[in-house]
Amino acid sequence: MKNADTLAPEASISDSLPKASGFALKAALAGAIALGAAGMTHGAHAADQKFEKCYGVNAAYKNDCQSTGHSCAGQDAKARDPNAFIKLPAGECRKIDGGKTEPAKKK
User: Fold this and answer.
1) pTM above 0.70, yes or no
2) Which DSSP state fits 10?
3) How far apart are alpha carbons 4 and 29 in whole angstroms?
4) Which pLDDT band holds residue 101 (cuts at 50, 70, 90)?
5) Model confidence over 19-32: pLDDT tens digits?
6) How far is CA 63 from CA 9, 29, 89, in A?
7) What would the pLDDT profile of 44-63 be if each residue is shown by its tens digit?
8) How far apart are CA 63 and CA 61, in angstroms?
9) Which residues contact 53 (CB under 8 A, 6 or more apart)?
10) What is the distance of C-alpha 88 from the center of its chain?
11) How far apart are CA 90 and CA 75, in angstroms?
């Protein structure tokens, strides 16, 4: 029986990988970090963007906020409800058929 001092140290995971795999792993990690940094820059720019309420273009259950009959986002069962809005970048609402920046007039 061998004693613990004579046993070979266990090999690490990196010892069992080919050298090219180590390089590929480092390259993938560097790429992920770079993409994350680029996304953070884009997010900062998006915070400066102006948004407007666009009425009459929502999909069912996809409205952003209160409209006639409920007080919470995502509760409007009617698609293209003239009193439900979604927030869009300023100027985009007028490009959508049926999009209005004011809710329908109540009767």
Assistant:
1) no
2) P
3) 37
4) very high
5) 556 666 677 766 66
6) 61, 38, 15
7) 555 678 999 999 888 877 77
8) 6
9) 64, 85, 86, 87, 93, 101
10) 15
11) 24
At 98, the amino acid letter reads: G
What is the token pair recorded at 94? 């007028």
Instruction: Tell me what pLDDT residue 63 has.
Output: 76
Residue with tokens 């273009």: 57
Cβ(70)–Cβ(22) below 8 Å:
no
- Look up residue 84 and give its two tokens: 């439900």
**CA atoms lying within 13 Å on the CB side of residue 30:** 6
| Residues 85/87/88/89 CA torsion (nearest 10 deg) | 140
| Alpha carbons 72 and 61: distance in angstroms, whole number | 10
**Statement: residue 94 has pLDDT above 70:** yes
